[in-house]
């Protein structure tokens, strides 16, 4: 499993695993209110990032921090008017979707949109100090940047070829409507129902909603079912192994490092769609570990609940795809039937 074809593959796996492990440990050991950001940001930056310069990190994190800050201001100002918060959120989602004119921009839309949703939902249903949460978001970004830069310097990777030129395509009204319906509907449901644990289920919803084709939508749903639910399964196995030992920082660090390195190694040796699949699986595995394992509990119940909520969410998306396909086919059959009747009527005359 750990046999690499090139030194670059080995270095890539090492720097991914070490960055994620170190950031997650910092989030746990320093007792942050929201340690999940110390798993979310390093995993996304090391698996999805392309530009690892200081400017590249700033360009990646700045839209996310700005979105979270604006969401916090709106949530505080209109705290007694959730419908206003939801309406402004719709305008923000539409603004982001209109700017996502190619696959790279669609990927860049994920973090700002999800962080906006996190702030809005948590401010509605928790007594958490949201300005402190915003401070921790900034701290997590800064720590992720410095840890990642250190690992990139320690483990250099041979640069890949020139990035493929992406052609901007105009976002149609239909694309915008589908995105608003799915993302806005999900946010509305979570604002009405106090189900904080389901907030992270909106990640695959956003990923599916920004697709421009029906095939792309279905592929995302199928892939996310494998990676998201599969990631929870891996996290459950890790939790069972850690049972009664999670407070032993040495044992926990060794286990976390080996797990992250194993998935990172498989990802580093993969190409194309397989690489994206392993990247999603890495994120889906690290998030429940960071969210639910503490020095006092291993969080099995919460991880099982997360897997169930993700399964239900993805099944709803799968059902919507097949329902709309059925409606479209029915409409096509009716249209062809009407055309046939019309032709028959004219031939009689």
UniProtKB/TrEMBL annotation:
Bilayer-spanning residue ranges: 12-30, 65-95, 107-125, 137-156, 177-210, 225-242, 249-268, 307-327
Protein's name according to its UniProt entry: DUF2955 domain-containing protein
UniProt keyword Transmembrane present: yes
Keywords noted in UniProt: Membrane, Transmembrane, Transmembrane helix
Keyword set includes Transmembrane helix: yes
InterPro entries assigned: DUF2955 (IPR022604)
Organism: Vibrio sinensis
């Amino acid at each position: 499993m750990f046999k690499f074809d090139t030194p670059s593959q080995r270095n890539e796996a090492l720097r991914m695993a070490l960055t994620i492990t170190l950031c997650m440990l910092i989030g746990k050991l320093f007792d942050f209110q929201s340690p999940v950001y110390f798993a979310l940001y390093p995993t996304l930056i090391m698996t999805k990032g392309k530009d690892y310069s200081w400017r590249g990190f700033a360009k990646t994190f700045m839209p996310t921090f700005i979105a979270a800050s604006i969401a916090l201001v709106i949530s505080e100002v209109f705290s007694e008017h959730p419908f206003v918060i939801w309406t402004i959120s719709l305008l923000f989602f539409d603004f982001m979707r209109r700017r996502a004119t190619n696959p790279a921009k669609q990927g860049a839309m994920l973090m700002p949109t999800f962080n906006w949703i996190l702030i809005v939902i948590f401010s509605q249903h928790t007594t958490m100090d949201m300005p402190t949460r915003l401070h921790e978001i900034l701290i997590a970004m800064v720590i992720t940047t410095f840890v990642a830069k250190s690992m990139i310097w320690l483990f250099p990777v041979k640069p890949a070829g020139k990035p493929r030129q992406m052609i901007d395509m105009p976002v149609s009204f239909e694309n915008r409507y589908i995105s608003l319906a799915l993302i806005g509907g999900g946010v509305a449901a979570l604002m009405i129902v106090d189900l904080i644990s389901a907030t992270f289920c909106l990640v695959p919803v956003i990923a599916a909603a920004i697709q421009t084709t029906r095939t792309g939508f279905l592929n995302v749903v199928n892939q996310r079912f494998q990676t998201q639910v599969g990631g929870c399964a891996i996290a459950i196995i890790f939790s069972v192994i850690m049972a009664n030992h999670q407070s032993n920082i040495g044992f926990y660090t060794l286990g976390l490092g080996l797990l992250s390195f194993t998935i990172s190694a498989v990802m580093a040796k993969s190409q194309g769609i397989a690489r994206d699949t392993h990247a999603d699986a890495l994120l889906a595995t690290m998030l429940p570990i960071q969210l639910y394992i503490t020095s006092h509990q291993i969080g099995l119940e919460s991880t099982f609940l997360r897997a169930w909520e993700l399964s239900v969410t993805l099944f709803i998306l799968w059902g919507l795809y097949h329902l709309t396909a059925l409606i479209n086919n029915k409409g096509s059959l009716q249209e062809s039937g009407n055309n046939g009747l019309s032709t028959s009527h004219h031939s009689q005359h």
